[in-house]
């Protein structure tokens, strides 16, 4: 970690932006983010608004690391990414997939509050039809199911061919129980842990409990690329690197994490294509997938776009105060 970055030096480079989403995603229709310009390049701080300071402080540590510390050596120049399909109606699926050119893997949101299993079935079926038999389809329930509900839903969705189910239940104990139930029923759908890694007190508990087949790893929530790599090393499970509906700046942090992984640890296409879900960006060449891949690059900030998406004075003040509180929590040495 850097030792000499003062709060005022950090705040001097901060630009708060608010970018509309093209489709509501996890209830969000405006994505707010802070963009900093560090000596290593642009970096992003964008914890969701409801996250408390202790959790958000890890996102700030990640932003500082990416802007001020040289990233680890890259093992690849491009990273394959998945299309991310929000909990839309089945009819909207082709239009969503069209935003992810060349992506042969799609992650489909399921278990959305207010919807039914029939909605999930219709959406997953539409994705399978659009991708064809050789595409890969995975689902993400964001912990929205209980064990019995998850078992029934996965049994119903498995015939469409599922690569894995991401965080079907909320707790590690539930994931372990579900994983055993699926195995004993001969349903070959792997379990991926996301929230059990990025929001857990102990990100390794899920691996230790044998409750998942792979882990979804996000750089910002885990405190940066170096802490994420330490967790990956200790978890000893295959990894999908994902993001948090970031601008291309935050996405580039995820790409550098994915690029740092040796091939045998990367479990498939990464969840880094979500700039396609935003209606704008802050860089000159937005990281929209081409041929199903993204380049491992540091984007160049677009000053006009930073101005265009500049947040209101009230929101800017809110974010600057949040940065101050989080900065106080991360205890930079020196
Ligand atoms: O993994 C992807 O395809 C995209 C990122 C993604 O799905 C998410 C981003 C941000 C918040 C989360 O609700 C969600 C996830 O749960 O993985
Ligand atoms: Mg997830």
TrEMBL record:
E.C. number: 4.2.1.113
Domain Mandelate racemase/muconate lactonizing enzyme C-terminal: 86-185
Example GO molecular function: O-succinylbenzoate synthase activity
Record Gene3D superfamilies: Enolase-like C-terminal domain
Residue numbers binding Mg(2+): 140, 166, 194
Active site (catalytic residues): 109 (proton donor), 218 (proton acceptor)
Record InterPro entries: Enolase-like_C_sf, Enolase_C-like, Mandelate_racemase_C, OSB_synthase_MenC1
Similarity-based family: Belongs to the mandelate racemase/muconate lactonizing enzyme family. MenC type 1 subfamily.
PANTHER family the UniProt entry points to: O-SUCCINYLBENZOATE SYNTHASE (PTHR48073:SF2), O-SUCCINYLBENZOATE SYNTHASE-RELATED (PTHR48073)
Name of protein: o-succinylbenzoate synthase
Organism annotation: Leucobacter albus
